[in-house]
Structures are given as structure tokens and as C-alpha cells.
Amino acid sequence: MTKRILFVCLGNICRSPAAEGILRARAKERGVDLAIESAGTGAWHEGDPPDARMIEAAGKRGYDIGHQRARKVDLSDYYEFDYLLAMDLSNHTDLLELAPPNRTCDIRLFLDFAEGETRETPDPYYGGKDGFNHVLDLIELGVDGLLDHIEDEDDSA
Ligand code: 4NP
Known about the structure:
Blueprint: E1 3-9, H1 15-30, E2 34-40, H2 52-60, H3 77-80, E3 83-86, H4 89-98, E4 106-109, H5 129-156
Parallel strand pairs: 1-2, 1-3, 3-4
The protein binds 4-nitrophenyl phosphate.
């Protein structure tokens, strides 16, 4: 069955929209059928496109994320997605605090699917260009690990 993945960061204009676009591109390349969205725990940027710096940095790597629009996490997300993937520990804590007891999703830290020690995708919003590229490096690793995990799950289903 098609797995449903929601990436979650704070503003939904930098990290989680990049993860959404990269997973969509890599899943297509690998022939894995997924439903992918992203959202923020905050509502400041609702309806906005991703940050122009992230659109540019992602575009240079071949990922087109300019059409995506920010939204806030909704209670229904806890039932409509299989995985809610937090970009950092604070996003993870916020998701758990809002979680209804009868939720049907798994709430995980995204980079726990990546090989390596780094667990958090740092917020690049107040930094320079390097921060955006570092985030993209981490997301590419995490997405590959996540797809390996999903393919293993599908094989054993
Ligand atoms: P994001 O980055 O959580 O990766 O989308 C941020 C974007 C905006 C803000 C904070 C983080 N903000 O405070 O507006």
C-alpha cells in the first residue's frame, strides 16, 4: 500500500519543504510509490512558498520546490499519515505534545533513518548560504536511508 509521509519543521519554508521535494524526486527515481507532504508546527508562513534561498539551493541540485506552499500541522495529520518525520528534536517534542492518544502514525526523528551520528537537521533560517547546503546534504542522506527502510518494510510485508 502507498505509504504516506509528512515532514515537519518549524516554519515549513526551509527544511521540511526541501525534504518533501527531495523525497519525491528520489522515490520516483527508485520507483517507490509514496504520498508526501510537509507542514510546520508554527503558522507564520501559511500559504507562502519556500524561502527563496532554499528554492535556489535545491534548484541547483535539480529539485524544483517552488510550487509548494506552507501549512501548519493539523490534528487530522496524526491519522492521515503513516509517518510524521520531525526535522529536529524540538519539532519532535512539539509533535508528541500535540499527539492524540489514538493517533495512527509513527512520530520519528527524520535523521534517525540516515546512517551517521547527526540526529537533527539544523534550522538554516537565520544563517548564510552554507547552512542551506548543509541542510540539503543531510536531507539527501536521510531520504536515502528512509527509502531503504521503506523498501525493507515493503519486502517483509
Ligand atoms: P524551517 O525554518 O522551520 O526550516 O522552515 C524556519 C523558517 C521560519 C522561521 C523559523 C524557522 N520563522 O521564525 O519565521
